[in-house]
Amino acid sequence: MRKVSVIALLLILAAGYALADPALGGGRGLWRVQDARVEEDGALVFANRWMFNREAFGDVSVWRGPLYGLEMNYAPVPVVEVFGSLIGITDFKTGPNRLYYDWQGESFGAKLSVPFLPVFKLAGTWHWLMERSDYHFVEDGFMDGLATKGMSWRAVGAFRFAELYKTLPTLMFNYGQSFEENGNKFLGAGIEFPSNAVDLFVEITSEVPSDENFSAFFGKDYTPKARVAPGVRIKIPYFHLNGGVEIALNDSVPDYEAILGFSFVSPFPKMKPKPWGRLAGKVQDARSDLPLEAKITFPNRKIRPLQTDPATGVFFLQKAPVGVVVVQASKEGYIPDAVPMVITDRGFATHTFKLKPLVPYGTVAGRTYDIYSGKPLEAELSFTGTQIEPVESNPVTGFFRADNVPAGLVSVVAQKEGFFTEERVVEVEDGGVTKLNIGLASLDMKGVLKGKVVDRKTGEPLIATISFSKAQRPSIHTDSATGQFELELPVGSFEVKVESWGYLPQPSSFNINKGDTTTRIFEMVSKGMALTLKGVYFEFAKAKLRTESYIALMEAARIMKENPDIRVEIQGHTDAIGTDKANQKLSERRAYAVINFLVQYGGVDAKRLVAKGYGESKPIATNDTDEGRQLNRRVDFVILK
């Protein structure tokens, strides 16, 4: 019961600390249990430890136990540790005081560690104890399994939970066996808790002969050597004090053995740690701020390229060289971007890259619907002349959205079986959203447009192109021989522009009704074309229009309205009867009379009209006959532009 109480008290005191010094005989660990890690890279550690127990013979006390002298650990690289020790015994008696000691042998060993796995560490150790055969007290068995005799191996595992949270402990597990026929098997486990000043730990171990008849390490009649040993380590710079007690769990070992010692951590010259810092960042689309899967390179440093996470666009470099590091982000279809970043020792630098696309783009969004009922329609929308895949509008709402559409003028074609195909040309803004709603007409809701394009003056047929404003549908061409055209259109209102080479464009609008044929004759005019307004009459020797002239003048107004972009000169002409001066003034007044009529009754903008009188200076027939003079008394309609 007393042993159990002592163990419980020591276990309570051991909470919260860790150890990082040599085990007995060498090699980083606790007392008998080895750690899977090695000493710090380049560390050189010297230690001395004495294990002893007290026996009383009347008034005489005897303090006797093994002595570990001149222990040494050295870790040349982070995965290898070599160690050695002289092992002796001491015998100290009181009354009178007498100290006797002798060396029992030497031990050497090495450890190969795999410390790179997260939390879980692995190692293997090799140990060789060269025991002397003639030291004093050899018959008392002071070696007592402190180190397995001869050559032995040990498998070591450790769970370093401090990598998850700094105050968590490290668990250690050992299993080993001697290569000698009469050697022992070893099993041990320990727990340690780190702190900056004081380390506490506890371990439990057991040893049995290697013979197959001795398979259990605890609770058997052959009484394996089982112990539990708590310990404490006080840390002073370059110097550690060690203390603990080893308590027997059976009668095959002393009830207790005290452990005292010290270790000296040499400031052994070693390379200064290479400075490094951390570098992290993110790559986004400059327009949408969406993450991009991009390549990260370092033009001025020999660093392996990184790839950003496709879901988040984040990249991270755990160890970046200190100084100025140029970081470049690149992705196909985007303009690369590079920035210099200053990395400080153990510092953290970040940057967010916003890459711009090589081809500016925007978004086209809207809805498709039945143009007559207003109900949403599911339709396919394609983008002519681009690499954008067609999109489908939602069958319930009719809404659609297309991203990464090249900026500029883009033709959008909406198609649905049983409906007329519709085409729209929209201007897509860089980084913007262009709204587009397209109404589709059922194929049974249609009419016919037919007509002809001719020269206004001669009536000759023309080869012309008829295009629909707002790109409601593809342009059509007239027949090269007849100037005629004909096509089916959905019911609705349309605006067109008629164009023919050498002629001024002529806009027009019309309605298409279900089952009806709409006919249009387009009479084209050209710059410089002169049209004589036939049927325009004035009072004799006056500038007053006669009422029978109104039909011809309204036809002139119609030409102006059909060609809203033209500017016209109204020319007045007379015959040769009378003086030149009188005829000049009369022709000017008659030209102004025509303009006044066109403005007042024809609704023509006065800015589009110019009046000019030419008198008798430009006859088109002889003035010697009545018929000739009648032709010379005229009003011409001349296209200026």
TrEMBL record:
InterPro entries to which the protein is assigned, alphabetical: Bact_OuterMem_StrucFunc, Carb-bd-like_fold, CarboxyPept-like_regulatory, OMP_bac, OmpA-like, OMPA-like_CS, OmpA-like_sf
Stored Pfam families: OmpA
GO MF, any single term: carbohydrate binding
Domain spans labelled OmpA-like: 525-641
Signal peptide: 1-20
PANTHER family according to UniProt: LIPOPROTEIN YIAD-RELATED (PTHR30329:SF21), STATOR ELEMENT OF FLAGELLAR MOTOR COMPLEX (PTHR30329)
Primary location: membrane
Presence of keyword Membrane: yes
Entry keywords, A to Z: Cell outer membrane, Membrane, Signal
GO cellular component, one term: cell outer membrane
Subcellular location as annotated: Cell outer membrane
Protein name as annotated: OmpA-like domain-containing protein
